[in-house]
Amino acid sequence: MTEMEIKDNSFLRQFEAKVDGHLAKIEYSSQERKVFLTKLVIPEEINLNGFKEDFIKSVLNHIQEQNLRVVPTSPHIAGFLRKNRQYKEMLPVGIRI
C-alpha cells in the first residue's frame, strides 16, 4: 500500500484524499470517542487498482492513531472491515459486523 495523504476536513465532516485533481471522501459523524463512517464517495475518474481499499485503510489508520473507535454505517466500509479482521479491535464493545 502506498501512503496517501488523508485530510480530516472537520468543517464538512469528511476525510479527503486528492488524486489527479479529483476528491475521494469518506463522510463521518463523531460522538463520544467514536467515529461513524457514513458514506464512501470515490469519483469515477479515480479508477486506480486497489485505490478504494488503500483509501479506507489510510482513513482507519488515521482514526486508530487518534485512539478512537469506528462504527461503519456505510456498506462498503462494513464489508471492508469484515474482510480485514485486523481492524476488528477498533469496533466499540457490542458492535459486530
Low-confidence stretches: none
Task: Return the average pLDDT rounded to an integer.
Answer: 93
- Beta-strand segment tally: 5
Strand content: 25-35%
Strand order, largest beta sheet:
1-2-3-4-5
Overall form: globular
Taking all Cα atoms into account, the compactness measure Rg is 13 Å
Biggest sheet character: 5 strands, mixed
Specify the number of helices: 2
In short:
The chain is of the alpha+beta class and about 100 residues long. It has 2 helices and 5 strands.
Overview of the molecule:
By secondary structure, the chain is an alpha+beta fold. It has a five-stranded mixed β-sheet. The longest helix has 15 residues.
Which helices and strands, and how do they pair?
Blueprint: E1 7-9, E2 14-19, E3 22-31, E4 34-41, H1 51-65, E5 69-72, H2 75-83
Parallel strand pairs: 4-5
Antiparallel strand pairs: 1-2, 2-3, 3-4
Offer a few descriptive terms.
25% helix, 5-stranded mixed β-sheet, alpha+beta, 2 helices
